[in-house]
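User: Design a sequence. Structure:
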């Protein structure tokens, strides 16, 4: 294996580990349409792969437009024993979730169902930019 190939593999491995190392553990719930108006964009429709952030993450609208990859890591209750689909979803911050706990985000129903069974209602997640 050539030196350049080894270097490329090493860089790729470090990039993957860095991404995993910065994941934030938390919980997700979901909300349903209508998704407008939103705190960030008013009546502008930003699609359905969206997230309403807790107040700390939202940071007085500083998070508006930021993209996160969210992955279900497990259940939070006995309602659905294996809620996770094994997939991740990329979402954009469009709103504030005023009732969310500091470690919680509120996904659109469409985004939530990509990563988990909506019957679970609340799931454990990891998310990162």
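Assistant: Done.
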């Amino acid at each position: 294996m050539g030196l350049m190939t080894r270097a490329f593999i090493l860089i790729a491995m470090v990039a993957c580990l860095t991404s995993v190392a910065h994941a934030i553990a938390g919980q997700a719930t979901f909300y349903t349409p209508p998704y407008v108006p939103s705190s960030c964009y008013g009546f502008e429709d930003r699609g359905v792969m969206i997230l309403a952030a807790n107040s700390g993450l939202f940071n007085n609208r500083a998070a508006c437009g930021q993209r996160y990859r969210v992955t279900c890591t497990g259940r939070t209750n006995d309602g659905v024993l294996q809620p996770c689909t094994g997939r991740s979803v990329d979402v954009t911050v469009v709103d504030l979730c005023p009732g969310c706990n500091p470690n919680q985000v509120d996904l659109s129903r469409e985004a939530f169902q990509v990563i988990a069974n909506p019957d679970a209602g609340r799931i454990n997640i990891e998310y990162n930019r």
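The longest strand covers residues 67-75. Residues 34 and 108 are 10 Å apart (CA to CA).
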